[in-house]
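If your schedule permits, I should be very grateful for your opinion on a structural question. I have a record of one protein: its chain in single-letter code and its fold written as discrete structure tokens. Kindly check, if you would, that the fold set down in the tokens agrees with what the sequence suggests. I remain grateful for any guidance, and I place the record below:

***
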Amino acid sequence: MRLGPRARRAGPLRRRGGRLLAVRWPPGAPGAGEPRARGILVAAAVAIGPALAALGSTVPVKNGAVAGPGDLGGPSAAMAEVRRQVRRAAAAPYPVLILGESGTGKELIAKAIHAGSARRVRRFCAVNCAALSDDLFETELFGHARGSFTGASADRPGLFEEADGGTLFLDEVGELSPRAQAKLLRAIQEGEIRRVGENHPRRVDTRIVAATNRPLGDEVKAGRFRHDLLYRLDVVRITVPPLRERPEDVGPSPGSSGAKPCAAPGGRRS
């Protein structure tokens, strides 16, 4: 953007999820001391805000990346319906539950939901719940304080904090133990977490997208999955048909999302 001779530089005017740009007069320039100057600049920022926010929210897409629902491949009518559901889920702020067999692309769908949502400028973090013990679940999702256990040499945020303002993908959520389910339920209900070894809660604004290959309704009846947790997760549901029912969709799939990833060991995935 080329600025006029009376505009020396631009300063960021912050708002949640992005930045708006405000141009100011340099000190000593004609009109800089007038009371109406601030009002003019604020009005200008408000006027151009939506356009600048839209430009700032564009996520660079690498080759083969999932940029949104439209990038989910597959010519079948079933995948066309999945893309329609993903667009609806991306436009809503609610938790999403993705149901489907292993290998049907549930994580790609979760990334497409994130990439198509207003949260796409923040991180997409993923964790495989089947790989987490109860103790590891707490440290991975909620983080820990320095000295909270042997080897905790520094404070460490959990995935809820790393995905604050973004999306946390819980793969194989049906594999969580009853204890882990209870802790996850509380974090979702209260919108806050507590690091291991800390006494004070931390507020988080993290959207949950969960996936499973288990029939969670049956798991609830069998007493292996909490009904109240399912109620919290199953707000928007997307069911992915198995590949054997749509052979025309078998082929190369998109790569990883262009969203900022969470790179970490253990059960976390980029």
